[in-house]
Amino acid sequence: MTSPEEPPSPAFRPSTVGSLGYGERYATDQPEEVALPWLGWAIIVTAVLTSLAALLPWARIPLLSLVISGTDLGKLLALLPILVALIGVLVLLRWGTLWVCIAAVAFSACELMLVFVESVGLTADQATEHQVSPDDVALAYGLWVTLFLAAVCLICCVWALSARQAKPRSQLR
């Protein structure tokens, strides 16, 4: 036991959990962790290239001399990477906190999943739409480039999430 004139040890001091108001944080000396700014450039470049690749030809039907650019989800597959690129701008400006990086990973994973799902049924859908055999529909380079770039964008976003560093006190917002 301690005498009344001795201060209590830090292990036995009263809790202050309920003493903070809504939205307030405990004062810590730890600087905020943000993603590395050069990963913001990597996210921006891969996301913009993914968006452009989504507009390339995805399938072709040589029998009809027809080239199919994009799919039913074409606009979404072109706009979703632009959202990831805007998140990359936040990373570049050193605002890439944990939740910003998690949002980038989530959106880029959705992009990769949508491209993969579209690629699975693309030949059957186009064959039915143009009344040809599924063997007459060939997958074009745009699909593969989009799939590859969406995977690279996801890798960059996961890297930004895992490689965060403390932001100097002078740069805190």
SS content category: mainly alpha
- Beta-strand portion reads 5-15%
Could you give the count of β-strands? 5
By DSSP (H or I, 4+ residues per run), the number of helices equals: 4
Rg (C-alpha, Å): 25 Å
Outline the biggest β-sheet: 3 strands, antiparallel
- Biggest sheet, strands in spatial order? 3-2-4
Mean pLDDT: 82
How does this structure look, described?
By secondary structure, the chain is mainly α. Helix content is 53%, strand content 10%. It has four helices and five strands; from the N terminus they run E-H-E-E-H-H-E-H-E. It has helices at residues 37-53, 74-92, 98-130, 141-162, and strands at 33-35, 57-61, 66-69, 138-139, 164-166. Strands 3-2-4 form a three-stranded antiparallel sheet. Strands 1-5 form a two-stranded antiparallel ribbon. Strand 2 and strand 3 form a beta hairpin. It is elongated and about 95 Å long. The mean pLDDT is 82.
Question: What are the key terms here?
Answer:
173 residues, mainly alpha, three-stranded antiparallel β-sheet, two-stranded antiparallel ribbon, 4 helices, 10% strand, elongated
Secondary-structure topology with pairs:
Layout: E1 33-35, H1 37-53, E2 57-61, E3 66-69, H2 74-92, H3 98-130, E4 138-139, H4 141-162, E5 164-166
Antiparallel strand pairs: 1-5, 2-3, 2-4
Helix pairs in contact: 1-2, 1-4, 2-3, 3-4
Short description:
By secondary structure, the chain is mainly alpha-helical.
